[in-house]
Structure formats: C-alpha cells, structure tokens
Design a protein that fits this description.
Layout: H1 2-22, H2 28-33, H3 49-76, H4 88-95
Helix pairs in contact: 1-3
Length: 119
C-alpha cells in the first residue's frame, strides 16, 4: 500500500509542476489585451485562469495528503536510529564480538597505553 501511495505522490508532484508551469504570470494579462486572441483558446474566452487555479489547488491538497500519509507510514515502520556515529566497541558488543586489549584482557579493566616519543 505504501508503494501505491508513493507512486500516486510522484504522479501528483509531476502534474503539479506541469500545472504551475502552464499558468500565466500576473504580467501576461496586459500582453493578452493587445491581440492575444483570447477567444481562440482551448478554455474559451474566459481564459484558463480559474480552471488551472482550481486544478492546482486540488492537486496541492492531494499532494499534502499523500505526504502526510507517507510520513505516517514512515513513523510506524520502526524507531529511528540514534543520532551520531556509535563507538566501535558498541558495534562489537551488538554483534557479540568480545572486545579485548592487546594482552587478552577485558577492555574495561585494561590500563591506558601511553606511547613514548622517539626523540
């Protein structure tokens, strides 16, 4: 079901971009008054403004609805991982790998090793 909603979401997004690009800007009205031939358009002499505006609004509402639905599915999928990169010892403990120091002892009980400089 999530894949179906995702496909619908993508189709709506593409249609929304196409409808927005089809709409004329606010400055285009003055140019259409000087021989624009508004009566010969597909949407009639009234223009496509109201149709495209309503279609854009409907697609925008559908886009937000599918976005919220996908966000809900993502939140129900599982818990998000902790932020940051875990320490290598934590990863080894989760995998069940024993963490040992160089002498074979437990890391928690090992003394820190200081490197000597060779001057």
């Amino acid at each position: 079901m999530q894949a179906t909603i995702l496909m619908i979401h993508v189709v709506i997004a593409i249609a929304l971009v196409a409808l927005i690009l089809l709409q004329q800007g606010k400055g285009a009205e003055a140019g259409a008054a000087f021989g624009g031939g508004a009566s010969q358009t597909v949407f009639g002499s009234r223009g496509s403004g109201s149709f495209l505006s309503r279609a854009t609004a409907v697609l925008a509402v559908a886009f937000f609805a599918t976005s919220l639905t996908l966000a809900y599915f993502a939140s129900q999928a599982g818990e998000a991982p902790e932020s940051g990169i875990p320490d290598a010892r934590v990863i080894d403990q989760q995998r069940g790998v024993p963490t040992l120091d160089d002498e074979g002892g437990d890391v928690d009980n090992a003394a820190p090793v200081l490197e000597e400089s060779s001057d």
